[in-house]
What we know:
nine-stranded antiparallel β-sheet
Amino acid sequence: xxxxxxxxxxxxxxxxxxxxxxxxxxxxxxxxxxxxxxxxxxxxxxxxxxxxxxxxxxxxxxxxxxxxxxxxxxxxxxxxxxxxxxxxxxxxxxxxxxxxxxxxxxxxxxxxxxxxxxxxxxxxxxxxxxxxxxxxxxxxxxxxxxxxxxxxxxxxxxxxxxxxxxxxxxxxxxxxxxxxxxxxxxxxxxxxxxxxxxxxxxxxxxxxxxxxxxxxxxxxxxxxxxxxxxxxxxxxxxxxxxxxxxxxxxxxxxxxxxxxxxxxxxxxxxxxxxxxxxxxxxxxxxxxxxxxxxxxxxxxxxxxxxxxxxxxxxxxxxxxxxxxxxxxxxxxxxxxxxxxxxxxxxxxxxxxxxxxxxxxxxxxxxxxxxxxxxxxxxxxxxxxxxxxxxxxxxxxxxxxxxxxxxxxxxxxxxxxxxxxxxxxxxxxxxxxxxxxxxxxxxxxxxxxxxxxxxxxxxxxxxxxxxxxxxxxxxxxxxxxxxxxxxxxxxxxxxxxxxxxxxxxxxxxxxxxxxxxxxxxxxxxxxxxxxxxxxxxxxxxxxxxxxxxxxxxxxxxxxxxxxxxxxxxxxxxxxxxxxxxxxxxxxxxxxxxxxxxxxxxxxxxxxxxxxxxxxxxxxxxxxxxxxxxxxxxxxxxxxxxxxxxxxxxxxxxxxxxxxxxxxxxxxxxxxxxxxxxxxxxxxxxxxxxxxxxxxxxxxxxxxxxxxxxxxxxxxxxxxxxxxxxxxxxxxxxxxxxxxxxxxxxxxxxxxxxxxxxxxxxxxxxxxxxxxxxxxxxxxxxxxxxxxxxxxxxxxxxxxxxxxxxxxxxxxxxxxxxxxxxxxxxxxxxxxxxxxxxxxxxxxxxxxxxxxxxxxxxxxxxxxxxxxxxxxxxxxxxxxxxxxxxxxxxxxxxxxxxxxxxxxxxxxxxxxxxxxxxxxxxxxx
Length: 923
C-alpha cells in the first residue's frame, strides 16, 4: 500500500558553491561520463562531515548579514548565492518492486537533483512543486542512497525577497507500480438543480508493470462527520507501461456547501483493487461550491453576490524568511480573515500547498498565480503544474497567468496568453483565467479581451472607460492601493524613513485605501479588490532604500501586527460596528500642542471625548472618515460610535506610564509535539497598570527550555538590521514576535518555559504546554561515511600479488569498478587465487583528529587490510564476517589509499568484500 514519508529531517547543508579540483586524467574524465559517476559534492565519496545539519523547510538567505554594498534592495539586501544539500538514507529490501517518487514542494531557485551520483531532475522555477521518479536508481538494504540537491539562488525570478534553499517540504512516496498516478485525481462537483450535485471524478491509473491488468476503482464521498454519502465502483483495463483514465459520476443530495463563512469540506476516498485486493488508496479533500462571474454585477459564490475583499501577499514572514512552518500559514490567513478579508492573491507565484489547505479550512478565496509569462514548453509545464496541483482546492477560484508584463498589450503577448490559457483549459475549464495588467487594457490586439476577467492593477481612473468599451468583460481590481504606513507611527519622517498612519501616504501610482475602496465598492460591475499588500514583506523597500530593508505597503507588518489601516478595512469589510482611534495619545513634551486624531469606523456618527469632556459629535462619511487636530493632554481619549442614535462601539487610548513589564499572547494554547507545529508568541511592552506602551524600544533577550526551539524573531520595523535568528530583539513601537517550533516526539513533551527580559522590564516566564502528538512518518538519515566504490582486479592471480601495486591512470581494463554494497562478485564464487580491492578517501583535519576507523560489514577469505601501504589488519574466515580497523596509528595525508588483498579458495562462501564499507569517528 501507499506510504508518504517526510524527508524534512536531518539534511547536511553547505552554503556556497563547491570548487572541484580540475582532474584531467583519463580515469577522471572517463568515470565522470558514466551513470552514477558524478564527481564532487554530488558523489557518495564526498566528505560532508563539516557540513551543517539542518531541517526543512530551510531558507539560508534571511540568516545572512545585511549587505549594503553588494546587496540588492529588491531582495532586502540579503545575499543569496548557491547552496548544497545532502541526505543519506536507506530503503528496506521490501521496497524493491515499488514505485518511489520524491516530491519537492518548492526550492528557491534553480535546482539540480542528484541521486546516487546521477542527475535525475532539474527545476527552473522557485515556486513550482515538482516530482522526481527515483525508482530505477535506488539501492535497497545495507547500501545507503545519497540524495543531493544543488540550489542556485543567484538566479532571481522576482523583485522581492525570494529566499534561498529547500524552503518547502520534501516527501517520499512509495506505492505499487500499478497505482493511482501522482496528482491523478480531479474532483469536479457540478450543481444539477436546487439540491442535486453530481460529483465528477477523473482518476488516472498508471501501470509500470510489464503486463496489462484489469482494475477496479472504488470511490467514496465522505462528509466531515465520517458519513459516506456516495459510492461508486468502476472497472477498467490498464495496459502495460501506459495510463488509463476512469471517469465516475457520484450524485450527492443537499451537500453542505463550501463558503467563505462556512467552509465545509468533503473527502473522496479512492481505492484501487486488482482481483479484489487493494493496491492503492488516496484521499482527496474538496468542497461543493459554485462560482459565476457577471460583467454587470460581479462575482457570485453559490449564486450569492459577493464583493471580493482581497489582499495580495508574498510568502515571507518575520523570523523565518520564506521557510514558514505550516501553522504560520494558518496564522496569517486567520489574521486576514479577522480583518474582513475574503480573498488572497498569491503574488506573484504559486503558494505553498499548506497555504491553500489553510484557505480551504478557513474560507478564503484564492487567486492562484503563475510566476513566469512563458509559452515555451518549460513555461507551459509550470502552468500545468499549478493546475494539476491546485485544482481540487475549493478556495481556488481564479487562475492568473501574469503580473504587469511588458507584452500584455501586444499581439505577441496575446498569442502567448492564448496558448497558456489553452494549457489550463485542457486540465480545468471550471475557473476563469486572467492576467494582472498595469497597462495595455485599451489595446485591441493585446491580451485583455482573451481573458475571462480583465485584471486592473491600479488605473482606477480607467474603470468606466474600459467598461464602456467592453461592456461584456468582467473586471476586477487585481492590485490596488499601494499606500504607505509604519505601524505605531503618527508623524512621517523622511530621515527615519517612517510614514504616518492616517491613510494619506501612498505611492505615486497608487491610491489611499479610502479612494480605492470607494472606486471599487460604488461600481457593481467591479468584482472586487486585491489590496497591495496584506502583510509587509522583505525587499522592494519602496519608496526608500537603505536603511529600509522591507516594504511599508502592508495592512499588517511583517510579523502580522496590525497597522491602523487594519481597522479601516474592518470598517469597510465587516458588518459589525467598528470604532477605532487612529493616532497616538502619548506625546510627552507636546502638551497643549495639536496632534492628529482620525476615525476608522463604519458607524453613522461618532463622539470624541478627551478626559471625559465631549470635544466633537460628528456624522461619518465612510469613504472620508473624521479627522481632527486636538490639543494634546495626557489622559484618556475615547471614541464612541453610534448607529441610528444607539451607541454600538467604543475605543479608548489612555496615556501610559513608562514601560516596566511585558505581556505575551500566543497564537494557540499549546504546541503539538509532532516536530512540525509552531506557536506565534506576540510580546507587548506594558506599564505598571498593564497598559500597552506604544513607544517602547528596549532590547529584549529570550531563552527557552523544554520540548521546543525558537525558530526566529522579528518586530515589524522596516528599517531594522537585527538578525532574525539571534536570541535578542528590540521592541519596535512596543511589539516584538517570536516563532516557537516543535522539536518532535523524540525530545519528549516537556512544557516550554520561555524567558524574556530587558533593561527596565520585569523578567517574564511564559509557559507553553506541549501536547503529545504523533509525528508524521519520516525517513531517517544515515550519518556514516560510506566507501563503497572500489576498483577490483579483473583477473585472479594464482600467486600472491603486491597489494600496493600502482595502477596506471589510463588503465580501465585491468581493474573493474565495483560497488561492494551490492554484495559478492559472482566471478569470485568458487575461484582459487588472489584479488586486490583499491579505493581512496580524503579526510578533514577534524576527522583525522577524531580517532577514525574503517568498518567492513562483510568480508570473506584470507584478508589483509592496507592503509597508505601499511598493513593494519588480517582476518581469515570462510564466510562473511565484520571487521573494524582503527586508523589512529596511520599517518593520514591529503589522500588515504585503501588496499584489500583477499585470498580465495573454492569453498569460501561469498568471497571478498561483500557488504558496505563505512568510516566512523570515535572522538
